[in-house]
Amino acid sequence: METILTNARLVLPDRVVDGTLVHEDGLIREIAEGRSAAAGAIDCEGDLVAPGLVEVHTDNLEKHFVPRPGVIWPNPLAAALVHDIQMAGAGVTTVCDAVCAGGYDADNDYRRAIFHDMVDAIETGVAENVFRIDHRLHLRCELSDPQFPEDVAPHVGRPLVALASLMDHTPGQRQWRNLADLRRFMTGEGLNVADADALLEKRMRNGAEAVAENWPLAVRLFREQGVPLASHDDTTAADVAQSVAAGCAISEFPTTLEAARAAHDAGLPTVGGAPNVVRGGSHSGGVAIEELARAGVLDALSSDYVPASLLQAVERLTRTVGMALHDAFALVTSRPAAMLGFADRGRLAVGLRADLVRLRFLKETPVVRGLVSAGRSVL
User: Fold this and answer.
1) Cβ distance 52 to 16 under 8 Å?
2) Is residue 297 in a domain?
3) DSSP string, 120-165
4) Dihedrals φ, ψ of 209, to 5°?
5) Which residues of the chain, if any, have pLDDT below 50?
6) 366 contacts: CB under 8 Å, gap ≥ 6
7) How far apart are CA 51 and CA 94, in angstroms?
8) Cβ contacts of residue 365 below 8 Å, gap of 6+?
9) 8 Å CB contact between 231 and 248
10) Which Gene Ontology terms cover its molecular function (predicted)?
11) How far, in Å, CA of 122 to CA of 365, rounded?
12) Residue range of the domain that includes 245
């Protein structure tokens, strides 16, 4: 059925124009400047109409599986459905749900208890067509966990897996190169100093050996399946060189300007955290993502742990860095889509999927007023 959206500010790849967009059978059929007088045209009241957002890495699903410390929700599909609603409400139409294969602490990490259920819930929701938006899987490979191989093996080759990231959270490496930052983070999570130090010692002892074995294993597994690889928390030029040697196609969350520049020079597009942009800096001692944007080495944004941060970051970057609105939107639409190889979405262009978000900004706050996923109105 034909749908006409008019009196809209269309966020095109190279500009924002006042115009009309027509979609039919799940695809964009026409884009034109000016208003439509056609009967049944929907008046967008001057709202922005942008491509639906594409999310490469969100941990939000996990929050609904573990809503409080020590509480694992007993209905996995129900948890996934609430996550789906929240992502849709943030303007996202394609989401790579990040699920952890392995954990920081092989003996006590709750992620092992929920990992398989999280994967099954996403696969069930897709198979039963009960989600509002398009869900894919992003396997976060925690290589510092000695049990990683047995955790990940059942899920390699699953059709929904769109991305795998190589993660090393060994204390003293990458994101946690500064042990004082990690100790402060751990005590903020509820551990006392003595317990934090004991856990740090254990993780440092076990992590290095596990990473040495698991890194080449993960690279081989996902290369064989043709799944794109992302590095995680590149901190130094040496980290980037290791990622390039592994065949990574993306540098996720570089923690320093040095690493982001090295990634850019090596042809690895970078993904920064949108919460970092909204807060004005990192919660764990890393570089401010606005600094990467100013240096021209930021290629995309991820909501990470706050779905609503994507659109807030778009607004903030136009205000603090001076980015054009269409360029800021590209960080959460066309660029992440390109990173994942999704050529059919992420832009307002004739023939692409009708994934659309209608919104306006109330000063600094984005207000999502409608969402279309593959031509279907879901909000």
Assistant:
1) no
2) yes
3) HHHHHHHHTT--SSEEEEEEEEETT-TTHHHHHGGGTT-TTEEEEE
4) -65, -40
5) none
6) 91, 308, 311, 312, 314, 315, 359, 360
7) 11
8) 312, 315
9) yes
10) hydrolase activity, acting on carbon-nitrogen (but not peptide) bonds
11) 30
12) 52-346
